[in-house]
Structures are given as C-alpha cells and as structure tokens.
C-alpha cells in the first residue's frame, strides 16, 4: 500500500508514476481525487492562466468505412441517417465560427471514402486561404503516411487520433479484426514524424476496461508526449453491440483529466461534449479538474443529431451563437474566460 498523499505529491513532483502506483491512484477515493483536482487546476493556471481555448468543431460527414463496436456512426449501423457537408456548407460553418471568435476549426468525420485526398486538401486549402490566422485540425481517422503528409503540406496544423486504448488485447475487444492496434499506433507515429501537433486519447469506462488498462493509457500518453489529449467517458449507443454496457463515470473521467494535467503540464486538454452529456455541469467540472479547451459544435443544426456517436449527446439543437454565449457564461461563472486565439500547445 502506498500513502495516497505521497503518491499525489510524487506525481506532481516527478510528472510520472510506476504502473502499480497509477493503479492505486486510479482506485483512490474522494479525498485523493480532490487533491489531484486542486493540484491539476493549479498547474493549468500556472501554464495557461484562466484562459480557455475554443475550437469550432465541424462534423462534416457521418459516413464511415470502419466498424468500431462502440460507435453510433459505425458502418453496420443501418439506423444511422447519413449526411455529408459540401465545401460551401463547411465554409459557411467557418464564416459563422470566425465571426464568433473561433480561430481553430476542427474537421471531424467518419472515415468516408467520398472525401478523397484531393477533396480534403481542397477543403484545408480553402479554409487556410480564407482564414490564414486560423489553425486547421483534422480528425479523419486512419490514413496512409502519404495522405497525412499531403494534408500537412496543404496547411493542416494539427491531427486528433485517439489511440482508444494502449492495450492490444483490450483494443481487439473494441474493434473488429481488420482494425488493428498496430495500425492505429503506426498512424500516430506517422503524424508525429510529419510534424503535426498531435492529439491522442481514450474513452473512460469503455467496455472491458480495467484500472491496469487506464494506467497503461496514462503511461502511453506520457511516452508519446502529445500536444493534446482527448479524454471523455464512454457512453453507450442503442444501435451498437455495447448498448447494455454501463457508461463511463464523471468521477473517473475527472480523475483522468487531472492526472494527465499533472503528467504533461503544458498539454491542451478538452472538456469534452461526452463529459457535458453525462453531467449538466460536466464542462465546468472538467475545467476545474485541469482541462483548458472546449470544442463547441459549428455544424449546421440540421445535421447535428445525425452525428450520433452515443445516446443523448448534448447541444444538438442550438445555433452556434447560442452555444457560444451559453458557454461563455458558464466559463465565466468558474472564474475562467474564453479567448480568441489559435491556442497552440506550449508542449512542443
Ligand atoms: N473517425 C475519426 C477517428 O477514428 O478518429 C474521428 C471520429 S470518431 C467518431 C471520434 C471519437 O469518438 C473516437 O476516437 C472515439 O473515442 C469517440 N467515440 C466514439 N463512440 C463513442 C462512444 N460511444 N462514447 C464516447 N465516445 C465515443
């Protein structure tokens, strides 16, 4: 048994722990979680002040060739109402977002073969030409190294690709055999080699996940030292085979955010939509636990409910401007402020 207080102090001091020590922390109770939270909030403040960066999320397609067992837009979900946004529609989202103060656009979608390399390049170039002061983040899943390189050369700055789980056996329980752990890992390597600001991440409470798996995720993240880390709770989707699995919890998600903030003090850490979905004040609680990014949705309201990764996703009905003003109020209420800046990571 380790003394919990000593472990928290050791993590704060050394910015890492051994796997068995992390497992102890992962299993800790309320008091220790509060200590982690308070330190993580302090570290966030020391590195980024009270500034919270906003990213405009454009969910531009929900077609997907992949079949992740947990995901509502997986290929085999025949109940999913599929859509694609045109270049004009995407640019309209950007215009709207730019006027609201967004300086990063995140293009996220299923792995949709319709959006060829050429099309992604054209979208990226058009955004960068019209908004040269903005960053473009891509989140398009697994591509070849050549494709990643072309997107980068066309101006894409960042790439989000959650590793999902750092444990191969666990990965294989969440994905069909064609989607290999090795390929996911290789993609992350390529992205780093090419020079993207890279984001990895995982779901908290995904089916079959153990405390050891979470410790492995944390050590993996420490090792690859990314610029961003996306962590949100797993939330079941009725049309997937994981429909009866319990959702990830608020407490465990907050604990993971705090530990990651302490392990990589300068990382960009979003308080995710999934976190806001499992708790009405999830985003605020995420920020209080060390997060410093929020990613409101800029997609047209007509398609939002169709980008349904999990049940009961929040903010599917509101206009972006409404979302932004609601978010501003919420963030101000916890003593932080939304900033209009590209918000590049200081973890370079
Ligand atoms: N296709 C791209 C990819 O694979 O990275 C981006 C889109 S994918 C839908 C974005 C993320 O959604 C995944 O990395 C996964 O962690 C998360 N996600 C999918 N299903 C989820 C669920 N049921 N609960 C919570 N998060 C989920």
Description:
The chain has 348 residues and is of the alpha/beta class. It has one domain: Alpha-Beta Barrel (TIM Barrel). 44% of the residues lie in helices and 12% in strands. The protein has 14 helices and 9 strands. The strands form 2 sheets. Strands 2-3-4-5-6-7 form a 6-stranded parallel β-sheet. Helix 2 (19-26) crosses helix 9 (211-224), helix 3 crosses helix 10 and helix 6 runs parallel beside helix 8. The longest helix has 19 residues, at 30-48. The two termini are 36 Å apart. Bound molecules: S-adenosylmethionine.
What are the salient characteristics of this protein?
348 residues, alpha/beta, TIM Barrel, three-stranded parallel β-sheet, 14 helices, 9 strands, binds S-adenosylmethionine
Summarize the helix and strand pattern as letters: HHHEEHEHEHEHHEHEHHHEHHE
Q: CATH topology, what is it called?
A: TIM Barrel
Overall geometry comes to globular
Bound molecules: S-adenosylmethionine
Radius of gyration: 19 Å
Read across the widest sheet, the strand sequence of neighbours is 2-3-4-5-6-7
The CATH class assignment is Alpha Beta
In a nutshell, what does this entry contain?
With 348 residues, the chain is an alpha/beta fold.
Can you lay out the helices and strands and say which pair or pack?
Blueprint: H1 4-14, H2 19-26, H3 30-48, E1 51-54, E2 56-61, H4 87-99, E3 104-109, H5 117-130, E4 135-139, H6 145-153, E5 158-160, H7 168-174, H8 181-194, E6 197-204, H9 211-224, E7 228-233, H10 250-263, H11 273-278, H12 282-288, E8 293-294, H13 301-304, H14 320-333, E9 337-339
Parallel strand pairs: 1-8, 1-9, 2-3, 3-4, 4-5, 5-6, 6-7
Helix pairs in contact: 1-3, 2-9, 3-10, 6-8, 9-10
The structure holds S-adenosylmethionine (SAM).
The site of S-adenosylmethionine has 19 residues, from loops.
């Amino acid at each position: 048994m380790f003394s919990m207080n000593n472990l928290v102090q050791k993590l704060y001091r050394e910015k890492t722990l051994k796997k068995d020590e992390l497992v102890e922390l992962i299993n800790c109770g309320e008091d220790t979680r509060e200590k982690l939270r308070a330190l993580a909030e302090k570290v966030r403040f020391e590195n980024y002040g009270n500034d919270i960066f906003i990213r405009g999320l454009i969910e531009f397609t929900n077609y997907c060739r992949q079949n992740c067992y947990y995901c509502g837009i997986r290929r085999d979900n025949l109940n999913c109402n599929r859509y694609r946004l045109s270049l004009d529609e995407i640019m309209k989202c950007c215009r709207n977002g730019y006027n609201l103060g967004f300086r990063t656009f995140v293009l996220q979608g299923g792995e949709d073969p319709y959006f060829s390399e050429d099309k992604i390049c054209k979208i990226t170039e058009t955004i960068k030409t019209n908004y040269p002061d903005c960053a473009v983040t891509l989140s398009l899943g697994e591509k070849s190294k050549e494709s990643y390189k072309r997107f980068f050369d066309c101006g894409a700055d960042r790439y989000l690709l959650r590793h999902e789980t750092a444990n191969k056996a666990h990965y294989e329980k969440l994905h069909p055999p064609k989607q290999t752990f090795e390929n996911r890992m290789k993609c992350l390597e390529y992205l780093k080699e090419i020079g993207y600001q890279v984001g990895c991440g995982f779901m908290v409470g995904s089916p079959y996940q153990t405390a050891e798996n979470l410790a492995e995720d944390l050590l993996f993240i420490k090792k690859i030292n990314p610029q961003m880390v996306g962590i949100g709770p797993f939330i079941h989707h009725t049309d997937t085979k994981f429909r009866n699995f319990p959702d990830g919890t608020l407490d465990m998600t907050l604990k993971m955010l705090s530990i990651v903030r302490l392990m990589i003090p300068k990382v960009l850490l979003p308080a995710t939509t999934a976190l806001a979905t499992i708790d009405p004040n999830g985003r605020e609680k995420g920020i209080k636990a060390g997060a410093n990014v929020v990613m409101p949705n800029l997609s047209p309201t007509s398609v939002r409910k169709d980008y349904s990764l999990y049940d009961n996703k929040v903010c599917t009905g509101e206009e972006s401007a409404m979302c932004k003003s609601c978010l501003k109020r919420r963030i101000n209420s916890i003593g932080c402020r939304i900033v209009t800046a590209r918000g590049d990571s200081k973890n370079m």
